[in-house]
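Data card: per-record layout.
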Amino acid sequence: MRFSILLTSLLLCTAPATAQEEWPELSGPYLGQEPPGMEPQVFAPGLISLDDERELNSVFSPDGKIFMFSRVVNGVFKMFYSRLRDDDSWQEPRMAALSKTYPGHSEVDMVFSPDGDWLYFISDRPLKGYSLERHNIWRSKVTPNGLLTPEPLGPEINTAGHDLYPMLVGDGSLYYSANGEETIGARDSYRAQYSNGTFETPVNLGPAINSDMDEGDIYVSPDESYIIHVSSSRPDGLGDGDLYISFKQADGSWGQGVNMGPTINTAGIDYCPMVTPDGKYLFFTRGNDIMWVDAAIIDTYRQ
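The structure for this 303-residue chain is written out next.
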């Protein structure tokens, strides 16, 4: 979701919830949309990105057969999905059944685990011992029949503050953003090593990624060779929230984050980065719309 919380199951029986009168026949990868070049384009305009709605997040399952995104419904964020049928056609997007459990609460910032077995997301749904005004990280088992009842991550991850935008890398380790004890700014990004079925104590990513401003919405490549994240109010910022990129150095440290410039960033807010599992496209949210661009643009920042 919007990285700084400026907040002012996939079951087939759920009802469609998009605004267009008739869902067209769409087939092929990426809902059959014409791929973008090196200039960002709105993804599936009039189908996913609707004129009078607010959409954000954008994530494909590892096999590319499920597309999920978030939409604001009655003032709260809800998860939607479209599935590629056996006949190679994409079904009309619908709200995930999991998002209907607590109508007045949000489910957003979803990501699949690398093996596709789990969906991680954040929610302010009731959780014993935690304030309803805070978002925690949850996960739900993905089955052929839909999502199972979600479970929260443990107290080593979920804190008294907001815990946001989970990202799983190749070895199962977790990146996310929170107001941790070692926070440099208002909100920082952290990494929790996955070991023996649990997440270890989160480690602050340090000043190359975090600053005395707000950081969050962190995408990390599966091999952890680069990070794309969002920051606000930096001196080199172009708008309310900008995407920055950092590359892993030879010594294992993170290089200083670089603003991705006017091709990606605008005077508004640009956030929710996510690269497709095949590494071909960078998705992100600009204002109220989901955007996508050829991931080859990432290589232009390596210098």
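Known properties of this structure: The longest strand covers residues 66-73. Residues 2-19 have pLDDT under 50 and may be disordered.

See the next section for split statistics.
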